[in-house]
Amino acid sequence: MSQPASAAGTITIGGDMTVNRLGFGAMRITGRGIMGDPPDRAEARRVLQRALELGVDLIDTADSYGPRVSEELIAEALYPYPPGLVIATKGGLLRSPAGGWPHDGRPEHLRRALEGSLRALRLERIDLYQLHRPDPNVPYEESVGALADMKGEGKIRHIGVSNVGRDLLRRARGVTAIVSVQNRYNPLDRRSEAMVGLCAREGLAFLPWAPMGAGDLDDEVLERVARRHRATPYQIVIAWLLARSPAMLPIPGTGSVAHLEENLAAAGIALTHDDLALIGGLEENAA
Predict the structure, then answer these.
(1) Which of 8, 80, 210, 270 maximizes the CB count within 10 A of its CB?
(2) What is the mean pLDDT of the chain?
(3) What is the pTM of this model?
(4) Of the residues 65, 129, 140, 185, which is catalytic?
(5) Which domain holds residue 23?
(6) Residue 224, domain member (yes or no)
(7) 234 is catalytic
């Protein structure tokens, strides 16, 4: 298949954005520690261009990746954007020189963050803008309300939230329409299991971050299933996520074209009932 991402099927976000159900997370096209430029900017641009060639039509990023480096590279590599490409970005986290991720959910910061993302991405409107993480020092409704205001101004098409549980999602939806949730989720970390089910029932997309466990997935069950399919454990993780729920929209990321091609090929792996039952047994190990 010339566009392997299409083997994942499609999902419709917000009622009017239909994309293949295997996207690309652009965090790792930045430098070491998600800081600064990548070692090879030309290779980073090739990764983005190859992703589109292989059928990816949703790219997820954030202003804090680099910071701003990921967004700038997306524009360098892909602008003018092809019709149908959804670029999702996030605001509400900063990147400190020491490598931390400070919160900032103040409405005035979120407005500056969004305006900066529009400039970096060369867009007039962000298709999916997500509140990156709740700020414990700012009432959640104020942060979400700032995004709702900017949506009303035509700068945001749809709003998503990230790193939330049921209560925060309920509060966000009390302010404005929410179309997606992005939480950490993979076979070895299922703390968001209930959120996956809620998204499926409510028609929201669920974007699992760290779908590969940030490189720390290591389980003999995954290895066993991988050998059965002549695949890598990471490909099995992607195939498992796709099979787990129709609301799931995995966004594995990489800075390598070869690894990108390997990840997207996972959309063509058909796990058996026995495979799914076996990996389902990992749930007892979830944090």
Answers:
(1) 8
(2) 94
(3) 0.95
(4) 65
(5) 9-215+247-252
(6) no
(7) no
Section 55-75 average pLDDT: 98
Give which of 90, 99, 97 is closest to 134, Cα–Cα: 90
- Candidates 52, 53, 75, 55; CA nearest to 63 is 75
N-terminal to C-terminal alpha carbon distance within the chain: 37
Omega of the bond leading into 80 within 30 degrees of 0 (cis): yes
Does some domain include residue 220? no
d(CA 10, CA 149): 30
Amino acid at 34: I
Question: What's the CATH number where 39 sits?
Answer: 3.20.20.100
90 belongs to a structural domain: yes
| C-alpha to C-alpha distance for 251 and 58, rounded to whole angstroms | 8
Question: CA-to-CA distance for 187 and 211, rounded, in angstroms?
Answer: 8
CB 165 within 8 A of CB 195: yes
| Cα angle 151, 152, 153; round to 5 | 90
Question: Which two tokens mark 162?
Answer: 């990230």
CA dihedral 62, 65, 68, 74 (to 10 degrees): -70
Residue-wise pLDDT for 111-162, tens only, equals 999 999 999 999 999 999 999 999 999 999 999 999 999 999 999 999 999 9
What is the Cα–Cα distance from 129 to 127, expressed in whole angstroms?
7
> What mean pLDDT is predicted for residues 99-103?
93
Instruction: Kindly state the average pLDDT of the residues 191-212.
Output: 94
Contact 221, 228 (CB under 8 A): no
Alpha carbon distance 149, 283 (integer Å)? 40
The domain tally of the chain equals 1
